[in-house]
Design brief:
alpha/beta; two-stranded antiparallel sheet; single chain; binds 2'-O-acetyl adenosine-5-diphosphoribose; 10 helices; 37% helix
């Protein structure tokens, strides 16, 4: 039995069916039903088990490279074992009807791409986009150990840069760092241009990513919120579907295609 309110689902499906240029803004909740922890979930989000100051800042990496690299390698292992869920697959299927359908994601996993979505902009970088901490050149060829997913306490020295000998870091945005410029430009262009925004699985507390829902709204987009909880984005939402992404997105797509 579905937990989604039928009236809300009908209202959201009507908005989606009428849209010419839908887009999505996704966060960690998008991948929750794939078994990847969110950051701020009451029931064991990553930032309730670990301190971002010790793991997700340039200073943390300078202080203890083995701890930081090991933690990210654990997350690389978890994502490698995870599968895209029915929500990722429904978003990929939206591109059959709206070929320009674009996804702006805060997620550093690759589940949108693995589900088949082609137009994805990663605001916070990617877990597998390694680069040198010293000279910033990209680094390829790192093999995630087969048992990495089993060991959240993994400590591992990072590989060294082939050009300058510096330490390799994960290509994710850490606290205190700027967002990468090209994805930011791409994301703002997409979201200014959309006429409907699906805001899925984000707590709306991390800026500037959270501001992008407001940007789309100011440019005239309708907003459908998909999140079991209320967030700062609730005030912008034309419809709030209070359920998990993997449950509600296939229902939404199905109903929009049949309306
Ligand atoms: P958060 O962990 O802050 O928020 C996850 C949101 O997903 C919450 O609002 C949950 O209610 C919701 N949620 C949980 N399960 C869900 C489900 N099955 N379907 C839909 N929604 C669900 O994640 P983000 O908002 O993505 O930064 O966090 C933003 C940034 O903070 C991340 O990108 C990360 C973190 O520090 C970097 O890595 C730079």
């Amino acid at each position: 039995m579905s937990s989604v309110n039928k009236g809300d689902l009908r209202a959201a499906a009507t908005l989606l069916a009428a849209s010419n240029r839908p887009a999505a803004l996704t966060g960690a909740g998008m991948s929750a039903e794939s078994g990847i922890s969110t950051f701020r979930g009451a029931d064991g989000g990553l930032w309730s088990r670990w301190s971002p100051e010790e793991l997700a800042t340039p200073d943390a990496f300078r202080k203890d490279k083995g701890l930081v690299w090991g933690w990210y390698v654990w997350r690389m292992g978890v994502v490698a074992q995870a599968r895209p869920n029915a929500g990722h697959r429904a978003l990929a299927a939206l591109a059959e009807r709206w070929p320009e359908f674009a996804i702006v994601t805060q997620n550093v996993d690759n589940l949108h791409e693995r589900a088949g979505s082609a137009r994805v902009s990663h605001l916070h970088g990617g877990l597998y986009e390694h680069r040198c901490f010293a000279c910033a050149r990209p680094h390829s060829g790192f093999e995630v150990p087969a048992d990495a997913a089993d060991n959240p306490q993994l400590r591992l020295q990072p590989p060294r840069c082939r050009h300058c000998g510096g330490y390799i870091r994960p290509g994710v945005v850490w606290f205190g760092e700027q967002l990468p410029e090209a994805p930011w430009r791409q994301s703002t262009a997409w979201l200014k241009n959309c006429d409907l925004l699906l805001v899925i699985g984000t707590s709306a507390v991390v800026q500037p990513a959270a501001s992008l829902a407001g940007l789309a709204h100011r440019h005239g987009a309708k907003v459908i919120l998909i999140n079991p909880e209320a967030t700062e984005h609730s005030a912008l939402a034309d419809v709030h579907l209070k359920a998990g992404a993997a449950e509600v997105l296939p229902l939404l797509l199905d109903q929009a295609n049949n309306s």
